[in-house]
Amino acid sequence: FLFNMLGKYILPGILVYGLIGMFFLGKVDPKDAGMKAADYNETVKDVIMRAVKVYVFIAALVLLGEGFKPIIFEYFIQIPSGILYWVNMVSAVLDNATLAAAEIGPILNEFQIKSILMGLLIAGGMLIPGNIPNIISASKLGITSKEWARLGLPLGFTSMVIYYIVLFVLEL
User: Fold this and answer.
1) Does 46 reside within a domain?
2) To the nearest whole number, what is the mean pLDDT of the chain?
3) Can you tell me the distance from the alpha carbon of 168 to that of 119, in angstroms, rounded to the nearest whole number?
4) What share of the chain is helix, strand, coil (3-state, %, to 5)?
5) What's the pTM value of the predicted model, to 2 decimals?
């Protein structure tokens, strides 16, 4: 369902971002080209604890979504898709999964859901807190919030405008 709904928007975006990264973000120094293996010691207890934390997080998201159903039924259904798209720029500073659980409900039409998800996906990359993978990547690669924002904000806002035109003006 999600692939059929969003694939024609996401796959070209991945290709364009890959080309941008390849041509505009510089070349790798040959001395730094190899990845170094990090010391990785993890016990069975660590794995089980991580699984429990993920389970609790998902359970909390489900409960959050259930708690927001009255708001979704009363208010979100009336909000135009274009506004839902732009409002989700807040996902640059909030976690996408939490916002998706709070906003998406079965009463929304498919275009409203598409608008919410595209806004979350694009804006979630603008700043480090927008996505759990952003947080992990920034931590592992030693990228500061300022460095991330220097590239993420202009690229993300430009992407938001381009996708808005594609979704709402061209209606592809």
Assistant:
1) yes
2) 81
3) 12
4) 75, 0, 25
5) 0.72
